[in-house]
Amino acid sequence: MTRLSYKQHPPDGDWDAIVIGSGIGGLCAAALLSRYGNKRVCVLERHSVAGGYTHVFKRRGYEWDVGIHYIGEVDEKSVMGHLFDVITDGQIKWETMPACYDRIVLGDRSFDLVAGRKNFVESLVRDFPDSREDIEAYLALMDKVSKATPGYFAYQLLPIGVRQVVAPLVTRKFRQFSDQTVEEALRPIIKDPVLFDVLTGQCGDYGLTPREASLAVHTMVVMHYIEGAYYPVGGPATIADGTETVIGEGGGAIYTNAEVSEILLEGKRAVGVRMADGKELRAKIVISDAGVPATYRKLLPKDVAEKTGVPAKLRGIGPSAAHLCLHLGFTETAEELGLDGTNIWAYAPGDREENFARFAADSKTTIPFAYLSFPSAKDPTFQERYPGKATIEIIIPAQMEWFEEWADTKWKKRGDAYEAWKAAMSERMLEILFAHCPQLEGKVDYQELSTPLSTRHFTGHEAGEMYGLTHTPERFRAGFRARSGVPGLFLAGADVSSCGVAGALFGGVLAAGAALEGKLAGLILRHITPGLAAKAEEA
Ligand SMILES: Cc1cc2nc3c(=O)[nH]c(=O)nc-3n(C[C@H](O)[C@H](O)[C@H](O)COP(=O)(O)OP(=O)(O)OC[C@H]3O[C@@H](n4cnc5c(N)ncnc54)[C@H](O)[C@@H]3O)c2cc1C
User: Hey, whose CA ends up nearest to atom 4 of ligand 1?
Assistant: First the structure.
């Protein structure tokens, strides 16, 4: 067995590597260390289910995904598709989503984002016939930013001498774009304000409005999906299942219910972890996927953390947005309910910035936007696994501050006032769903609302944040890196790369690469690039 409950099967003492947190960043790092570094890796996850935001949760015969509603760039010829093959031993398969992967709804008008760059342009030109030039100029800018992006992150995989030379060059190139907000960069290009709102309609994917978000994160998200979107066949749980095989083959294991309370040091070096129950586990390599704030503020001793300079960098950079998610279950299939896999981004009419700010200050005001996702319509195995059923998620932005009065209560025991708040908000969220899918009215069999308190309870992310650190220009200026500043300790996940499963996955590559000190870059090239070439030839 390679996935065990820590409480029932506490692991013994020494490992080659310890990974704190089983988000996709941690799992990817663990699988790469296992596969290419011959390391016995112990993954420690505080939650009872592995996978971080890629885990699924089940209730009353239904299943919902938590933090992967779609993913781009995993087709069989892409580097990321290969990376997933490598870390899951080829176990993960991807279902192509409908050609219209995202539908942006602004009040009573709707606009389709269609897979394939040409289709993307033509579909928008149909809606905005006078804006072809603006759309093309916009994509030309996206191309420029995309070219400047990989080097900024990937140079960390290079050997130290080369790294020092390359770092200032790639950083300068990237920051000329990442220093701009979406608003600053795109307003001058996109003259039609409605088109601007459409092109920034995926801003929920990075949890910031155009006035706050860095152009870099916007570009990464838009270009990630532009050739089409995918969903894991069998649901997102297959990701943790696949990595478990690879980690297990290397003699490692994933432990759930395993909370780390401290990173152990000997002299200046990280040498292991202390668990919440006081047990110590040791390893030459420690990787934290718990996020930058938790690693430096909770897990490392204060004086050691301060010496790295990272807490100082963190001071101006807050957490990303929190959310509410209404999980819905139906006793008819997606097909019977007339659902398809297209995500709906439903915005309230009016100024987006004002709408978001008003709602953040007062949750009783109009909900500025809702993201509607239809997982049972995306996964072709859903009917086999849950015959006659369908699930939907409605996600809206939220503030941890709304829940202050319940902050010290326990999960499932937060009291009547909390339940009443949730019931009232759920009704408002359902109204939005029914406005878009009136056929669903009266058909909800099960509903459950998660709040930022639920997110904090399950992930340990203090502000209930969805995407790690906020993706402002300041975040990219601060530049959080896989090398932690403490020898033997490395960071994985979204905070050292960017948000999204793809970003966090790449954060895992950076951590494993840094831990193997340069060897991994060569190995990845050797193992993945020939694979790419071979597959391309077969095709
Ligand atoms: C609602 C929502 C929807 C999303 N939708 C999408 C989407 O459609 N597509 C997409 O690409 N991305 C999406 N994302 C973003 C994506 O899921 C995340 O960016 C990514 O999965 C983060 O991975 P990670 O490895 O950085 O961290 P996480 O997944 O946050 O994992 C960190 C893990 O560390 C564990 N941990 C923390 N502290 C400790 C400790 N002390 N001891 C042990 N374990 C610890 C936590 O429990 C957690 O499991 C979504 C996110 C959310 C929240």
Answer: 67
